[in-house]
TrEMBL record:
<feature type="transmembrane region" description="Helical">
    <location>
        <begin position="108"/>
        <end position="136"/>
    </location>
</feature>
<feature type="transmembrane region" description="Helical">
    <location>
        <begin position="176"/>
        <end position="194"/>
    </location>
</feature>
<dbReference type="GO" id="GO:0043190">
    <property type="term" value="C:ATP-binding cassette (ABC) transporter complex"/>
</dbReference>
<feature type="domain" description="ABC transmembrane type-2">
    <location>
        <begin position="31"/>
        <end position="257"/>
    </location>
</feature>
<dbReference type="GO" id="GO:0140359">
    <property type="term" value="F:ABC-type transporter activity"/>
</dbReference>
<protein>
    <recommendedName>
        <fullName>Transport permease protein</fullName>
    </recommendedName>
</protein>
<keyword id="KW-0472">Membrane</keyword>
<keyword id="KW-1133">Transmembrane helix</keyword>
<keyword id="KW-0812">Transmembrane</keyword>
<feature type="transmembrane region" description="Helical">
    <location>
        <begin position="32"/>
        <end position="51"/>
    </location>
</feature>
<dbReference type="GO" id="GO:0046677">
    <property type="term" value="P:response to antibiotic"/>
</dbReference>
<dbReference type="InterPro" id="IPR047817">
    <property type="entry name" value="ABC2_TM_bact-type"/>
</dbReference>
<keyword id="KW-0813">Transport</keyword>
<keyword id="KW-0046">Antibiotic resistance</keyword>
<keyword id="KW-1003">Cell membrane</keyword>
<feature type="transmembrane region" description="Helical">
    <location>
        <begin position="63"/>
        <end position="87"/>
    </location>
</feature>
<dbReference type="Pfam" id="PF01061">
    <property type="entry name" value="ABC2_membrane"/>
</dbReference>
Length: 259
């Protein structure tokens, strides 16, 4: 076995061990996942049962129209906890403690990222189950559902690496939690709640050229068994581009803070 492959194997093993540690903490305190799901579920209930009748989306089933945007709001809400957990580990000296141990340095960061993806997918599952209880139905086949899960997971991964940056650099709890607010409200200026065609010119231009709209439209088309067209490529380009930039900045920040 070469030195590089051995190092890769050790890094993966260290990451698995630390992921188990993080997931154990979440299982002992499941309120994180529950809290993450509560706000999107409450929002879905509000828009479907209070505002849904007044919103013209061209669809008789507003919960099905709304669900893709709610899923993204769930993820945006959930990654704030990743930033918070990183911040608390930084303040508690956990990173310095792990640094003195014979483990791959990057595995500590990757453990938080993988834990975030797992926890957010659980929260998304809870939201989908509630939507089913509210009347959401989809005839999508298995491949379409796999595609939806893949897009949501990729979006989660990109936002999680973005959350790593404030988690490592914030000076206070308020600072680390506040960064996610713009991400949570971004779907409101997109096609998540109403078609962009109903918006004023400048707002419509922004809504049609920001990442949430293409991701929401792709997921909605997959659920509805419709052709996704170019939306899926635009959505993937946004996710991969954001992931690459966020990963690069996060790793540079990590090396600077832990060096």
């Amino acid at each position: 076995m070469t030195r590089s492959s051995s190092g890769l194997g050790n890094g993966l093993g260290d990451t698995v061990v630390l992921v188990r540690r993080s997931l154990t903490h979440i299982l002992r305190s499941p309120d994180t996942i529950i809290t993450t799901a509560i706000t999107p579920v409450a929002m879905m209930l509000l828009f479907v049962y209070v505002f849904g009748g007044a919103l013209d989306t061209g669809s008789d089933d507003y919960v099905s129209y709304l669900l893709p945007g709610i899923l993204l709001i769930t993820v945006a809400s959930g990654i704030s906890y990743t930033a918070y957990r990183l911040f608390m580990d930084m303040q508690g000296g956990i990173f310095e403690r792990f640094q003195s141990m014979p483990i791959a340095r990057s595995s500590v960061l990757w453990a938080h990222v993988v834990t975030s993806v797992v926890a957010n997918l659980v929260s998304v599952t809870i939201v989908v189950l509630v939507a089913l209880g509210m009347g959401f139905r989809s005839g999508a086949d298995v491949l379409a559902w796999i595609a939806v899960v893949g897009i949501v997971a990729l979006f989660t991964l990109a936002l999680t690496w973005l959350a790593v940056i404030p988690g490592l650099t914030a000076k206070s709890v308020d600072g680390v939690s506040g960064f996610s607010y713009p991400l949570i409200f971004l779907p409101f200026v997109s096609s998540a709640f109403v078609p962009t065609g109903s918006m004023p010119g400048p707002v419509r231009a922004f809504a049609e050229h920001q990442p949430v709209t293409s991701i929401v439209d792709t997921i909605r088309s997959l659920f509805a068994e419709q052709a996704v067209g170019t939306d899926v490529w635009v959505a993937l380009a946004w996710c991969v581009g954001l992931l690459a930039v966020a990963y690069g900045l996060a790793m540079a920040t990590y090396r600077r803070r832990i060096s």
